[in-house]
Amino acid sequence: MNVFTLAIALIFVLIPIVLSKSFRLGLEKDTIVAVIRSVIQLFIVGYLLTFVFESEGYTFIILMVLIIIGAAVQNVARKKTPIKGITWKVAVTFIFIEVLTQGILIGFNIIPATAQYIIPISGMIIGNSMVLGILFLNRFLSEIEAREDEIDLILSLGGTTKQAIHTQLMQAIKASMIPTIESQKTIGLVQLPGMMSGQIIAGASPIQAVQFQLLIVFLLLTTASVTSIMLGLLSYPTLFNNRKQLLRLR
Fold this sequence. Notes:
single chain; mainly alpha; 76% helix; 10 helices
């Protein structure tokens, strides 16, 4: 692919713009902004990765991973939420997931400790954690708002904050994990995942592409569970005051 053929592919951008205009959806501006941002961001990342891949030190690898984590944390934290200290809670969760997964991958020699492996896999892991974090927080707060009376009742009867919030917490964790689990049930049948498709297009053996994709599948299962559970355990105590009373979310 070259610049000319990529320009022709802008047809796929014009189609949703025309449809949005025709049906008066009002998404034309957002679509254009999204495309411009994606082009700029991806080219910047492309040049950065070229530089990092050509360097032999781990300093730039660590910096790239930190940039990925920082951007993901800010995207989650900027969502309106009454949870105090949500920024550091999300940061701790993402850093823990990165250290856990990369520690296993590199420690057991599943992947070599090079930028070509560490950075793309880190991006997929943290990106998935970001989406799951947003999904979990939205569902968790919705569950609490819908069942405030039940929580207050348990607390008034002498229950602990953990007991009072347990049902809502478990429901939010399950809800945030279900999309990952369900999508993996039909992987290879309904869709060919991005990493596998990319490797096949690049000329890799389909079997090798499958092996790498399965690695990502296994990683995402850990990401889904650890993100939701860890973020939930860090978040729920801040929803109560010193008297063990539920803080109003509105």
